Amino acid sequence: MAISDGVDGYLARKNGQTTRLGSFLDPTADKLLITSASLLLASNHAGVSGFILPPTVVVMIIGKDILIFIGFLIVYFLTGKLRVVPMFAGKASTALQLSMVAAILIAPEVSSVLHGWIYFVRVLWWSAAIAAVAATFVYIYIGSKFIEQYEQHNGR
């Protein structure tokens, strides 16, 4: 799914077929994919045996999306403007999360050949969690700057 999403985005940009709706729906779909996968991979019933995602990682990843959504609403209510601006920090965070999901899903097969795979997966999931927190701070900063500029230009 992640590969087809990336190809779809690339082709839309290359062919000039980007839309405002698409720029909203694409990251929303990414967030739903990551949220679902993270919850399932943290479950003892649906997760990959020996590679269960720690709840702390799940909270950090999903918490990012919840906080960014709340920030989006705050910006909208304070400015009356819908502002969806993808940032490198957010894209990097999503890429790490998608890589983490893929690494966990292939872990049983790969770990039988690469004995250090468990360590790679653990570094990947903590990197994804830390990147989510960092991206949250970047978006909070960008959103607060946008509100500040809006208020300066509108005499508030």
User: Low-confidence parts, pLDDT < 50 over ≥5 residues?
Assistant: none
- Compute the separation of the termini in Å: 45 Å
Overall shape: it is elongated
Helical residues, percent:
over 70%
Which structural class matches the secondary elements? mainly alpha
Give the averaged pLDDT, no decimals.
88
What does this structure look like?
By secondary structure, the chain is mainly alpha-helical. 78% of the residues lie in helices and 0% in strands. The protein contains 6 helices and no strands. It has helices at residues 2-14, 20-42, 55-79, 88-105, 107-111, 117-153.
SSE blueprint:
Elements (H helix, E strand, L loop, with lengths): L1 H13 L5 H23 L12 H25 L8 H18 L1 H5 L5 H37 L3
Helix pairs in contact: 2-3, 2-4, 3-6, 4-6
Put the structure in a nutshell.
This protein is mainly alpha-helical and 156 residues long.
Keywords:
156 residues; mainly alpha; 6 helices; 78% helix
